[in-house]
């Protein structure tokens, strides 16, 4: 059980690169964005191979993220790039309350996206994106004992994503996207062991789809579904374990403001085979566009 908990880094990019439904629409070239996000995640029951374990586990994660982006023209195609960093607090509870809470700066995240197909008249868009996470965040191997509470993950990670979106009929729009995430090794990880070992993780394959309803020119509502699979982990030369088989949901509301956009999101896990079930996750994003 300790291996299952401590090998599941709660702040790592272990799930899909979640998109808000409107993210598939390319921004106009020359546009700049500054986004500030506050998010909170509440995790509870521990699952192993799809079975709930008899333990009162709790793990709360609060995070503030700053993202700066710029839209430009890449040849004849629209493109967008951003950099982001977060400050997080991980607070264990229940049977994990012996583990101290931890606050720190997360890893630097970079993204580059472009759209090979854009039809603004028909409102159809196809885009691709590449993500890179650099091990620049705060990290202490001793804070992986019992449960990993580090904000940084001490490893490189990357992902490739493709997405498509279109207007269906009237106020309804649809989006679908998929991505594959890869992870470098973390050579300084304790987990349940008395000495440092190397934490390795296999790729994670993810899909997501969403429906958006435009209330009017200023506001929209969205529903999303996410599925993640793969991502087995191992410490040292032990066997691969903790395969992810996760179904999640999300709901969001967006409101256009004179200077940008306000987004409110809520979601959680539906079922999971491994790790701590996310009972609730919500986020408030304020984006300034200029």
What would the keywords be for this entry?
single chain, 290 residues, mainly beta, Lipocalin, twelve-stranded antiparallel beta barrel, globular, disordered N terminus
Explain this structure.
With 290 residues, the protein is mostly beta strands. The chain has a single domain, classed as Lipocalin (Beta Barrel). 2% of the residues lie in helices and 63% in strands. The protein contains one helix and 17 strands. Strands 1-3-4-6-7-8-9-12-13-15-16-17 form a twelve-stranded antiparallel barrel. The protein has a three-stranded antiparallel β-sheet with strand order 10-11-14, with no helix packed on it. A hairpin with a 4-residue loop joins strand 12 and strand 13. The longest helix is centred in the first third of the chain and has 5 residues. The radius of gyration is 19 Å and the shape is globular. The protein starts with a helix and ends with a strand. The relative contact order is 0.20.
Briefly characterize the structure.
The protein has one helix at residues 2-6; strands at 32-48, 51-52, 57-74, 77-94, 102-105, 108-119, 124-134, 157-169, 172-183, 186-189, 197-201, 204-214, 219-230, 233-235, 244-257, 260-272, 275-289. With 290 residues, the protein is mainly β.
The helix fraction, in percent, is under 10%
> Which of globular, elongated, flat, extended, rod-shaped describes the shape?
globular
Residue share in β-strands:
over 45%
In total, the number of strands is: 17
Secondary-structure topology with pairs:
Blueprint: H1 2-6, E1 32-48, E2 51-52, E3 57-74, E4 77-94, E5 102-105, E6 108-119, E7 124-134, E8 157-169, E9 172-183, E10 186-189, E11 197-201, E12 204-214, E13 219-230, E14 233-235, E15 244-257, E16 260-272, E17 275-289
Antiparallel strand pairs: 1-2, 1-3, 1-17, 3-4, 4-5, 4-6, 6-7, 7-8, 8-9, 9-12, 10-11, 11-14, 12-13, 13-15, 15-16, 16-17
């Amino acid at each position: 059980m300790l291996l299952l908990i401590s090998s599941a880094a709660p702040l790592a990019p272990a799930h899909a690169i979640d998109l808000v439904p409107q993210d598939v629409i390319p921004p106009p070239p020359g546009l700049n964005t500054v986004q500030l996000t506050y998010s909170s995640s509440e995790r509870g029951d521990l699952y192993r191979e799809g079975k709930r374990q008899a333990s009162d586990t709790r793990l709360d994660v609060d995070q503030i993220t700053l993202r700066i982006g710029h839209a430009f023209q890449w040849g004849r195609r629209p493109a967008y790039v951003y950099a982001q960093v977060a400050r997080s607090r991980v607070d264990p509870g229940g049977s994990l309350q012996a583990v101290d809470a931890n606050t720190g700066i997360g890893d630097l995240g970079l993204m580059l996206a472009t759209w090979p197909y854009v039809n603004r008249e028909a409102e159809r868009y196809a885009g691709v994106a590449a993500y890179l996470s650099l091990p620049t965040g705060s990290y202490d191997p001793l804070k992986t004992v019992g449960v990993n509470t580090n904000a940084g993950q001490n490893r490189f990670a990357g992902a490739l994503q493709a997405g498509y979106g279109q207007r269906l009929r009237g106020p309804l729009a649809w989006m679908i996207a998929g991505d594959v995430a890869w992870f470098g090794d973390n050579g300084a990880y304790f987990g349940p062991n008395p000495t440092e070992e190397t934490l390795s993780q296999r790729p994670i394959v993810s899909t997501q789809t969403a429906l958006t309803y435009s209330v009017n020119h200023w506001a929209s509502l969205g529903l999303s579904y996410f599925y993640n699979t793969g991502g087995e982990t191992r410490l040292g030369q032990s066997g691969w374990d903790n395969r992810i088989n996760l179904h999640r949901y999300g709901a969001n509301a967006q409101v256009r403001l004179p200077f940008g956009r306000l987004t409110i999101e809520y979601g959680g896990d539906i079922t999971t085979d491994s790790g701590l079930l996310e009972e609730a996750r919500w986020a408030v994003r304020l984006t300034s566009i200029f």
